[in-house]
Amino acid sequence: MSRGLLKSVTLILLLLLAVPVSRAADKLTSEEIQQLFSEANRDYSRAVALRSKQPDAASELFRRAIASWRTIITRGGIENGYLRYNMGNAYLLMNDVGRALVNYKKAQRTIPGYPDLKRNLQIARSRTADQIEPASGQGMAVLWSWHKDIPAKVRFTVGTITFALMWLLLFLRVVGLLRFRITALVLIFACIWGLCAASLVSEELDRVSRPEAVIVAREVVGRQGPGNAGYDESFNRPLHAGVEVRLLEKRAGWVRVQLPDKSTTWLPQNSVEII
Predict the structure, then answer these.
(1) pTM over 0.90, yes/no
(2) CB of 218 within 8 A of CB of 240?
């Protein structure tokens, strides 16, 4: 789960770093990014080696590796799915299931088809203390989830190409350069473009109106209102790290979230992290 991946990420980062960028006041240089990346990889590898015999030392090294990768993302301007995947691995090896899921799901945005990511995402989900079954009657939602395995950039590119081809065929037909019937071909291109456009729009609307989040607090009590005082508990037991939710509302340091079974509750805002 570590060495082969780290080598592949090195190649990817080298390609990214080959593109010159203008440096802001606190923006890392290519050399600084490479140094941080090497340090993070070294700390991660040492942590994996020490994990069974010196867990405390390993956890400290994992935290250092995560901090370096996060600095590359925030100050280096490189939002890379493989970096997020590595961060998720480090959190998972520290048994921090909530933050592991946060980073795996962020990685999904750019590398949704990566097999190791899919496998580790399922491992992290299997380790959550609360196995909440999704609400029934979501057949259409499952059917519509096809686009989650295709990066948004790919859907945008395919949609743009099919849209251009559709209008090119229509133009050539109108000016008389095409003699054969193009109705079926135009309809196929129109359907592909429509699916790509609809998936991108619905994904963006969902992200803005009901952003995904994950409970990262080890244990948190859900309330029926935004506060501890005066509001009863929503459930007969607390929720635990790793529960995936949708954010519905924010109010005075609290957030109202929707659980996979469609039930809702209020949680302290610092107990969840938005994807």
Answers:
(1) no
(2) yes
